[in-house]
Amino acid sequence: xxxxxxxxxxxxxxxxxxxxxxxxxxxxxxxxxxxxxxxxxxxxxxxxxxxxxxxxxxxxxxxxxxxxxxxxxxxxxxxxxxxxxxxxxxxxxxxxxxxxxxxxxxxxxxxxxxxxxxxxxxxxxxxxxxxxxxxxxxxxxxxxxxxxxxxxxxxxxxxxxxxxxxxxxxxxxxxxxxxxxxxxxxxxxxxxxxxxxxxxxxxxxxxxxx
Length: 210
Hints:
This protein has one domain. The chain has eight helices and no strands. It starts with a helix and ends with a helix.
């Protein structure tokens, strides 16, 4: 077995897990995509778990990393930084800061689902945006995810710890996506990325209509 084939086989299970686990998690969620189990945790722990227990957040954040790896260069840090930065700001808005009422704004959940579809398609079709355009796209997607994070701040949880927790989890998911993207690029198995992107977009469509 060649080294390239071994790398292909090593990469495939990781992508199947990344695509399948969120779907299984989502199957147990309520129609409103509730994130369960957060009330029992406070502050950092609750924030850390939040992006990991929703298919919408998890898929989008991994896809940002994969897309950044596919483009390479400064996108490797610009895309994740833009996503996390805007996510934190919009989370503050979701908590009622900046004069926003807090809670869910209309179409926030639809915006999250659309971001999953868009990021999946960007990966599936290997669309290479310029640095400015790609960074802007990631920042725009992050607004929806961040607002949802902030609006779901558990009662009694410290806001700063909660923000630090979900920002840490998000960076970890971005890093996982970058690692997977780099591995696939070196193995020359672009079809794995395209397939994973297609599955991600399909899940986004299901979230949007369901």
